[in-house]
Design goal:
This protein is α/β, with parallel strands linked by helices. The protein is built from ten helices and eight strands. The structure holds glutamic acid (GLU).
Length: about 260
């Protein structure tokens, strides 16, 4: 199976912006094992800005563009250092790909990107993709990694996209506000009622919320790719998701 796994900032880092070491170690271990079992894995990792915030000792996520871009430049380095180190322990090689909206819109650049990704997979490498936040200004920004992950899943014709988030999945109402909110295990189509459930929940260091995840699900439906939203605090769940067991919320056209 070809699977794209998107890791949100809240999964990778503590609210301080510093690395959640235990979590990241577990994720790298599970992904290494899945790869050993013969699956092809592509990672879309957030966390550049969040980790930059931690490393630079900033008090909060910056709002001005130069500081955001500087934080991303520092944090991206840290991120790849950690992935390289942890995956090396399991004998896997990682590659960094940073792209912007312009690389997707321009046909030639998009096809270069897809060709490189496919070649990396043939070479048994684990590609780690993020938006190139240091140059992505308003006109060319993809903006959030849920969308980026769906674009990637579509580009490489993945069968499955897993979004590791700080929430268990899509709920019947906002679980932070309503204790009776129930997890929706399967969604077979994106209709108005699903869109209205998305609200705007997002975390302190991350970018997306449920809205960007629903948009990603819509793109996956169009690309014939299943998508699962699950909580990144239980990396072992990735095994069950790959085995087709019910975890989090699954968006699939297959009934
Ligand atoms: N590219 C951003 C980062 O690495 C994250 C965007 C997102 O989480 O959606 O910090």
């Amino acid at each position: 199976m070809r699977v794209v796994i998107k890791i949100g900032t809240s999964t990778l880092a503590h609210s301080t912006g510093h690395l959640n070491i235990k979590r990241v170690e577990e994720i790298c271990k599970v992904i290494s094992d899945i790869k050993n079992a013969g699956h092809q894995v592509i990672m879309v990792s957030s966390g550049a800005i969040g980790m930059g915030v931690g490393k630079l000792g900033l008090k909060q996520k910056p709002t001005d563009i130069p500081t955001k871009q500087a934080a991303a430049a520092v944090g991206q380095c840290e991120l790849m250092y950690i992935y390289d180190k942890l995956f090396s322990e399991y004998n896997h090689t990682v590659a960094q790909l940073l792209i912007t909206g312009a690389d997707i819109e321009n046909e030639e650049r998009h096809s270069n990107f897809s060709n490189t990704l496919n070649r990396l997979l043939e070479l048994q490498v684990i590609p780690v993709i993020n938006e190139n936040d240091t140059v992505a200004t308003e006109e060319i920004v993809i903006g959030d990694n849920d969308t980026l992950a769906a674009i990637v899943a579509k580009s490489v014709k993945a069968q499955l996209l897993i979004l590791l988030s700080d929430i268990d999945g899509l709920y019947t109402s906002d679980p932070h506000k309503n204790k009776d909110a129930k997890l929706i295990p399967v969604v077979n189509e994106i209709n108005e009622s699903i869109v209205s459930l998305a609200g705007g929940i997002g975390s302190r260091l991350g970018t997306g919320g449920m809205q960007t995840k629903i948009r990603a699900a819509q793109m996956c439906f169009e690309a014939d790719c299943d998508m699962v939203i699950t909580n990144g605090n239980r990396p072992m769940d990735i095994y069950d998701i790959i085995d087709g067991k019910s975890v989090g919320t699954k968006f699939t056209e297959k009934i």
